[in-house]
Amino acid sequence: MMTAVSAADVAPTAYAWEIQASGLRVRVGRNRMAVDGLDLSLGTGVHGLLGPNGAGKTTLIRTLATVLRPTEGTLELLGESAGGMGEHRALRRRIGYLPQEFGYYKRFTVREFVEYMAWLKEVPKADIPGAVQRAVERVGLADRADEKMKALSGGMVRRVGIAQAIVNDPTILLLDEPTVGLDPAQRLRFRELLQELGKDTCVLVSTHLVEDVAAACTDVVLFAEGRLVFQGPPDELASMGGPEHVGDSPLERGYSALLQGPEQGRGAW
Amino acid sequence: MSVEHASMRLIDGYARGDTDIAADEVWALEAHLEACRVCRDRLSAAVTTQATAVAALVDTVWSGLGPQLAATATMPRRRRWSAWMSAWMTPVMVPWLAMVVSVTLLALLLDLVGTGSSEVSLVRLLAPVLPVLGVAASWSRGLDPAYELTASAPRAGLYLVLRRTASVLAVVVPALLVAGWVTGMTAAQWLLPCLAFTSATLALGGVVGVTRAAVALVAVWAAVVVAPTLVAGRTTFALQTDGLPVWGLVLALGIGVVIARRGAYSVLGAHR
To answer: Are B205 and B134 in contact, with CB atoms under 8 Å apart?
Structure first.
């Protein structure tokens, strides 16, 4: 029996920010710091993580998903320390994660795959069918739910990825490049879903499409060379750029204005 | 649930939609109805007797909805078997396990035909490394497409690794048991090295990644034991009965390291 409001729903949270990092450094490979001294506090809402290629976005998201361990600094997720050797089972139950390379089993149907992920995420057994149906409906795949994954198009596979990320009703949702392969209509629908999720979830979306951020995000996190360059509402980022900066929209001009300094002398793109 | 139930007077009034029920009473009744099946049943009975207008409306809606519901395809029955299977192994492990079993059968066939070195049983030479291949496939970045998703799940870690290892052993050990029975080996002669290699793969895998560990161990086994044995045509120390305590030690050591470093299986490193 499901009550309208459970004790867990009305319990006060014991943390100020869903994601709080200070002095966070993450080493990748032998001696490259992909995240290099990051101070970041993220609360409920949709946060767009912007940055050039190789800025360390994927490493940061993996660290937040607790699959990479911080080398230095502190990272608190939902008030719980995410460093150290633990398995973070209780914490992981409340995190949804869509990796950049979303791998799946071709022979599974959409429903079987999302069910499998729900099992991996320790969703109570009795809740799994309902949770799976809800997640599949939210990404608009209810009519294809019993088709094999190998019969789906790239955009649909991506939507299955989003469905598996939200199947456990996460408090922190980490999406690494979720809009790759979505057609314009799907992207619009996806932005609506993001806004809906952002009402009670801390959503971090990594992207390099500036227009996605403008449309769906309440907050922009600009990240370059492992460091935080800017954090604030999209309007503020847009106001940083002037007509002399490269870009087609105010937001793009703001983006290039902030990244211009150190990047300019390199000659690369 | 609570033993106190709502009175019939209250339920009847609620079903009729009486406006004279106090607000706090309505609130308490609704909160109780949410949690109490017995009272919900009583309420639905009260609706049919007390509020005929509502009952008629519900019947009309049902009669309109009935044909549509019949036409809608119901959700297909969950395939119990596949749900159960995926809790123990990934689909990518299946071809590897099939390969392991066919290698066992092939080795057995060669043993029975009696080609090559007649002194040493081929099954016995291969037995320790056969499960290693299955274990490598069960927790590998290169072979498992969903590795990153799996690693990020709460169930990831030692628990899932052991579950998948157990399913590998459940396939490999019976195959070897048959082979051992046919060729007349005692179970300890191959079972102990087999388990020792499995635990060593997992232990080493926590440091360098399970696939790399498996490749390294198979290479070492091939170079140190299989090649000399096939060349010399006699059983090396590693496979004699005197060697069993050493295998026991390796097994214990492997299990110890795996338990001590259990956190290593829930991060990306162990998937290499």
So the answer is: no
CB contact under 8 A, B147 and A103: yes
Q: Which of B57, B61, B48 is nearest to B15 (CA)?
A: B48
Nearest CA in chain A to B40: A1
- pLDDT, tens digit, 9 for 90 and up, residues A79-131: 888 877 677 888 999 999 999 988 899 889 999 999 999 999 999 999 999 99
User: Could you please report the per-residue DSSP string of A201-249?
Assistant: SEEEEE-S-HHHHHHH-SEEEEEETTEEEEEE-HHHHHHH--TTS--SS
Q: How would residue A267 be classed by pLDDT, with cut points 50, 70 and 90?
A: very low
Structure confidence at residue A1 (pLDDT): 46
Q: Report the alpha-carbon distance of residue B107 to residue B113 in Å, rounded.
A: 10
Q: What does the DSSP 8-state code read for residue A257? A: H
Q: What is the dihedral of CA B239, B244, B245, B249, to 10 degrees?
A: 80
Burial of B261 (0-12, 13-18, 19+ CB in 10 A): middle
Q: A residues 99-158 near B, CB within 8 Å?
A: 99, 101-105, 107-108, 112, 115-117, 119-122, 129, 133, 146
C-alpha–C-alpha distance, residues B160 and B87, integer Å: 9
User: How would you classify the pairing of strands A172-176 and A202-206?
Assistant: parallel
Nearest neighbour of A105 by CB, restricted to B90, B262, B267: B90
The stretch B6-25 carries a mean pLDDT of 88
Q: Which helix (H) or strand (E) holds A26?
A: strand A19-28
More confident site: B119 or A223: A223
Instruction: Among B152, B155, B164, pick the best mutation site for testing chain A contact (most A Cβ within 10 A).
Output: B152
- The answer, for B266 touching chain A at a CB cutoff of 8 Å, is yes
* Distances from the Cα of B149 to the Cα of A62, A131, B106, B153, angstroms: 11, 18, 36, 6
A103 vs B34, B78, B145: nearest CB: B145
Question: CA of B125, closest CA in chain A: separation in Å?
Answer: 34
B75 touches chain A (CB under 8 A): yes
- Whether the Cβ atoms of residue B134 and residue B93 lie closer than 8 Å to each other: yes
- 3-state SS class at B114: coil
Is A68 at the interface with chain B, CB within 8 A?
yes
